[in-house]
Amino acid sequence: MTKITPFHAFHLAAGAHMATFAGFEMPIYYTSIQEEHLAVRKQAGLFDVSHMGEFIIRGPQAIELVQRVTTNDVAKLNDGQAQYSCMTNEEGGVLDDLIVYCIEKGKVYMLVVNAANIDSDREWILSHNQFDAELVDISEKTCLLAVQGPLATQIVQQLTDVDLIQLPYYRFIKTTLLGIKPVLISATGYTGAGGVELYFENKNQAAEIIWDALIKAGQQYGLKLAGLGARDTLRLEMGYCLYGHELDESTTPLEAGLGWIVKWNKEFIGKTALQRQKEKGLTRKLIGFRMIDKGIPRQGYTITDLEGKIIGNVTSGSYSPSLNQSIGLGYVPISYASPDTPIAIQIRDRLVKATTCSLPFLKSS
To answer: What angle is formed at CA 29 by the lines to CA 24 and CA 33, rounded to 5 degrees?
Structure first.
């Protein structure tokens, strides 16, 4: 049965084009992906991302469990800090990418995981819980709104006394918003355009109160409702990985360019395999590419050299509204991974010229 978020009725009332995503009926776009995308880059956009999963891990040994199942170093986090990380299997393959929030250092953490992986992530963590830590899945009762864009923080600032303008990247606070508490506000997002994300429980019509207040506060700033279509093109311009596209169990974080979230000074599941891969050297790597000739690359399209020899596959691709050009991501052998390497994308029966490039495609605002 398809799930819905507490904002479902608001999406329908706003004329959203809905589709099933990770088991949820979600808005893909309201007016157009391009219009919503550019609004986020230039002003602000409001995304419902309540389909994401949230786990609370707590107890005297909570940190040991989180350290064991994630690749980044949780010990570096103090209260109010967050970090991007991933979970890997024994072979070093990515089970999921996630954000770890340090609620109380050493004792209480929140893990925010991808919607499609909620059940498998929960079972994986529990199967490695030799530390008597408690895992509470709060996914179903947690609302998550992302207000993204250069003017996003100014919009949310109108609804709280806490100084959000000075909130550093990947920091968060727990506060009261419009009389609703606790609301966790984090300077995180998936767009590279700046902004915040709001976590709260839908009690006493909190979802409706916050949704309406954000839209009202955002009117003077050009805030637009934005769907998952724009979320995807925005993250693609930043070269951000998406699970099920750039990341899966057959891909390692090293191949995906995420070596910076793998910390070798601690023990974690998959460390031995990743160390072995690092020592032997990568055979393939995630690259960005820009289309030279006309054509839009899509997931699954074949990447070739200019003679038509198959060298890889596209993991994500789209037209970039910000760059007015088609772009994509994909895995190729190391020998083709340097920027400015000529390649081709097979689009139907044509080989369409492209060139590799460094990431991100668009510099963060």
So the answer is: 135
Q: Which two tokens stand for residue 213?
A: 């207040």
- Which DSSP state fits 317? E
175 exposure class (CB count in 10 Å sphere: 0-12, 13-18, 19+): middle
Q: Which residue has the tokens 């993204």?
A: 148
> Where do the domains of the chain lie?
8-49+140-236, 283-365
Residue type, 328: G
C-alpha distances out from residue 113 to 51, 138, 146, 327, Å: 10, 11, 15, 26
> HSE-up of 349 (CA within 13 Å, CB side)?
0
Least Cα distance to 97 among 265, 228, 253 occurs for 253
207 within 8 A of 215, measured Cβ to Cβ: no
Q: What is the pTM of this model?
A: 0.96
> How confident is the model over 145-195, as pLDDT tens digits?
999 999 999 999 999 999 999 999 999 999 999 999 999 999 999 999 999
In tens, the pLDDT along 297-351 reads 999 999 999 999 999 999 999 999 999 999 999 999 999 999 999 999 999 999 9
**CATH topology for the 283-365 domain:** Elongation Factor Tu (Ef-tu); domain 3 (2.40.30)
